[in-house]
Amino acid sequence: MEKDKLNLNWKSEIFSSTIIVSKKNKKIAFFTSELFSETTSLKIDEIKYNFFKKGIFSEKTLIFNTSTKEIIGEIVYESFKTKARIKLNDKNYIWKNENFWNSKWSLTDENGILTKYDSNFSGGQIESITNDYLLILTGLFTTNYYLRMIFIAMISILIPILASR
Fold first, then answer.
1. pLDDT by residue (tens digit) across 58-107?
2. Where are the domains positioned within the chain?
3. N or C: at which end does the chain have fewer Cβ atoms within 10 angstroms?
4. What is the 3-state secondary structure (H, E, C) of 90-122?
5. Which CATH number is 6-163's, of 1.10.287, 3.90.550, 2.40.160, 2.20.200?
């Protein structure tokens, strides 16, 4: 990554429906969603966006600007959950998992890596060479979408095992 980089932090409490994104300890954005909801809201400054997944088995999430009432992008998930294609404001990006533990991700365009994501149990860091907060946070949404799917899959496996005892 280049010298002029933007550093952000994000955090979430256990079982919280809110993710707070900050820059130098100042809140700049937050996500809110419910565990089984198909819609997640993002607020950056005073602008609100909705990420809407159409159905539980859909491989696509639409990005909606609530101010202009327009769909401004989409995320298409790959079936093996290690990569997603993001289209935002008519530009294409690739989000991908960078390690086995699902704790590092990156967002790239045709010129290379724009943003790196690194997480721990309840939050993480973001390092980016773009100052497009919507793009950076769309990547964070994708990260948390995959983490939520992993959590749901683990619960789905554990419930029958525990119930059979």
1. 789 999 999 999 999 999 988 666 899 999 999 999 999 888 777 899 99
2. 6-163
3. C
4. CEEEEEEECCCCCCEEEEEECCEEEEEEEECCC
5. 2.40.160
